[in-house]
Records
---
Amino acid sequence: MKPKINDKKCGASKDSCKIIALCPTGAISYIEVEEPIIDKNLECNCSSSCGCGNEGDSCGCGGNSYSRIVIDYDKCIECGLCAEECCGAAIDMI
């Protein structure tokens, strides 16, 4: 089974996402993008509905920059650690 990220649940931040460092093969990385992820609350500024744990401009789901985590399936060994440890329950093994 492969990990699949649910962007609707992911409030990724380079500094708060612990699964990036936990991945044994380095298959998970963080990227910044210019457009918001579909269904993100762009005005959240880390309200309780956000869950990303950051504040202001460093918020992964609002502010001036947008971010997400991505999985390099060529590196992924399908161990499931990311799904187990994701603080936002945003990764499912499918």
---
Amino acid sequence: MPKTKVSVTVDAVKVAQARELLAGTTLSQLIDIALDRLILDELERRHVAGYTVQPPGPDDAAWAAVERNPHEVADDVDWAQLYGLRPSP
């Protein structure tokens, strides 16, 4: 991902706290982590807001209430082998 050099003014106390919490990180890394978390938080907030505008309806609730027997699910993937829990034949 391309990087852009910027000049910022930051609160020294917040930077010190962040560095203490995330030991060994540079200011660039701290800002990158902060931006990642801000983006994730904002996307989640918007996702939740979408449900507030139009909450799940009765059809959604009916699907959620359906009991499923996991042994009746057609699945031909050997998950144990795929994740290395059983050697290949």
---
Amino acid sequence: MARVLALTNDLLFGSRLQGDLTAAGHDVRLISSAERLRGLLTDENPEPGRWVLVVDLTDAELDGCAVLESLAALPAMASAGTLGFYSHVESGVRARGKEAGFDLLVPRSRMVREGAALVEKLGAGAGAG
């Protein structure tokens, strides 16, 4: 089981993601804004140990890559695995996500199919490729 913070403004997909990950035994908290995420990581520093940050890169207003870059220096991020998902038609997002420092980047369709397993691998500290 992994502890997961999922940053997404998409209520439908976020609910599905939360349901799928929770059903697989993960402890999931949905966050809808970068400000709230920063507050959680600063004020409520996640419990010690490995955890996973899942970021929706399909929302241009959210700019998940910039969010990850802005959080990089926070102590809580030292124990985080980071997973970004993007629309397969947005070819530049994957490259931008690599630049931003995500541990793993996957198309949204793969997130739907394999999200729980990917989170499990990142939560255990293993790269998922």
